[in-house]
Specification:
Layout: H1 3-22, H2 33-54, H3 56-62, H4 66-74, H5 83-97, H6 115-120
Helix pairs in contact: 2-3, 2-4, 2-5
Protein name: SCO6045-like C-terminal domain-containing protein
Pfam family, one: SCO6045_C
């Protein structure tokens, strides 16, 4: 196999793996489906925690249904362009379209911290 063919095969395999993890794609050959679904769940949980931090009003509104509603929204749907804020906005839009929100709630004004500032920021107890 030539170097170009090997690169193309690797790119296809990586695309298949990424689609399986974040877009509900089929498990690529050679991967354990159970482990792949565990990782998919982990990635959705990470997104859910971030959306909960950005939109605590949605957590309060949905209560115990928040996790299930978010998983239903996120499964098979990659994070949208625009990152976590766009994800939170799209999730709220879906809830509104389903009649689960009384109106469009205000987004939090606090900017999303950069990874570096999160580690260095002083917090008062």
């Amino acid at each position: 196999m030539s170097d170009d063919a090997a690169r193309e095969a690797l790119a296809r395999a990586q695309s298949g793996l990424l689609a399986a993890l974040v877009a509900g794609g089929e498990t690529p050959p050679g991967f354990d489906e159970k482990r792949l679904r565990i990782q998919e769940f982990s990635l959705i949980s990470k997104r859910r925690r971030t959306v909960a931090r950005l939109r605590p009003d949605l957590v309060a509104l949905l209560g115990g249904d928040f996790a299930g509603e978010f998983e239903s929204y996120a499964r098979g749907r990659p994070k949208p362009p625009g990152g976590s804020r766009a994800d939170a906005r799209d999730f709220a839009g879906r809830l509104e379209a389903m009649g689960r929100l009384p109106g469009r709630p205000e987004e939090t004004e606090e900017p999303e911290p950069s990874p570096a500032s999160r580690w260095w920021r002083f917090r008062r107890s």
